Amino acid sequence: MKTQLKALAAGAMLLASSYAAASINIGGLTVPVGTHFENGTIYENIVTGVGQTLTGYGEVFSINDQPVTTLCNGCELTYVFGGYKVTSITPTSITFSGGYVNFYLGFGANNDLNPSMSSGSAADFSAASNGTLFLTLAGHAIDAAGNTFAGTGNNIGSQNPGGTGSGLGDIDVTGMMFGNTVGAGAIANSNFNTNSIASLFGGFADFLIGSTFSTTNVPHSGECGPTSTAAGCLRGSADFRGLVIPEPDSLALLGLGVAALSLGLRRRKAK
Predict the structure, then answer these.
(1) Confidence category of residue 18, pLDDT binned at 50, 70, 90
(2) Which long-range contacts (CB under 8 A, 24 or more apart) does 58-65 make?
(3) How many CA atoms lie within 13 A of 267 on its CB side?
């Protein structure tokens, strides 16, 4: 019996370790399980005063240093964001509250985001928000004031800003937080809802969010301005760092199996 229990325990440990090294298919995109670093482009409007809202869009080009084009056949992984309201702004710093980010997985005709060839940022925003709703994030507090994103740089609040920003995000299973209207149903939410990022405010978060921004090589520069409703005034890079797990039901079954084995071993030792 002891040999059998040890064998079963070893098998359970092997199964658990296989999850850490495995990948999962989410809607046709093969996503490696484990720590993640998604890197892509970002296009966003210029904001110049408190109360204005940052919006934009972008495309994820690589996941864990693997090109998205190698992780799915003929697809793109794009995103749009909004709801980030300016709470403070100086020429060298800016803070935002709220905010949401929606990711979309597009195949075929929905594999269509190409800012350098499009008619404008309105067309880009449409192309970045079609396809299957993949992931929905909401801003998570980074300070006691409830801000969710902060940036530093030069000429912030002008028509020629540049700098970097960082913040936190939570999986929003409702898809309705901070002005978001996309609703529930994002197919990858359960795989990224890990509460794996420690935060001093509001409990654990699911994502670290970072960005750079400037007016260099902007595809639709004529649309820039504080009253513009279109995205695309600034260009930069974005990264989203989190943790990917298999389906929670699979992990729950694995946990029950390991718990049962552990209980069996303890009872065996007590005899």
Answers:
(1) very low
(2) 58/128, 58/238, 59/113, 59/128, 60/103, 60/240, 62/38, 63/31, 63/32, 63/36, 63/37, 63/38, 64/32, 64/34, 64/35, 64/36, 64/37, 65/37
(3) 8
pLDDT at 77: 97
The residue among 240, 235, 230 whose CA lies nearest residue 188 is: 240
Q: How far apart are CA 245 and CA 33, in angstroms?
A: 6
**Rounded to whole angstroms, how far apart are CA atoms 123 and 105?**
17
79 vs 41: CA distance, rounded Å:
10
d(CA 121, CA 100): 19
pTM: 0.84
Smallest Cα–Cα separation from 152: which of 144, 143, 160, 161? 161
8 Å CB contact between 108 and 138: no
Helix (H, G, I), strand (E, B) or coil at 132: strand
Residue 259 has pLDDT above 50, yes or no: no
The alpha carbon of residue 13 and the mean position of all alpha carbons in its chain are separated, in whole angstroms, by 30
Cβ atoms of 257 and 230 closer than 8 Å: no
Question: Domain limits of the chain?
Answer: 1-22+248-271, 27-245
Q: Looking at per-residue confidence, does 188 or 15 come out higher?
A: 188
Structure token pair of residue 40: 């892509």
Backbone angles phi, psi at 205, to 5 degrees: -110, 175
Residue with tokens 């934009």: 56
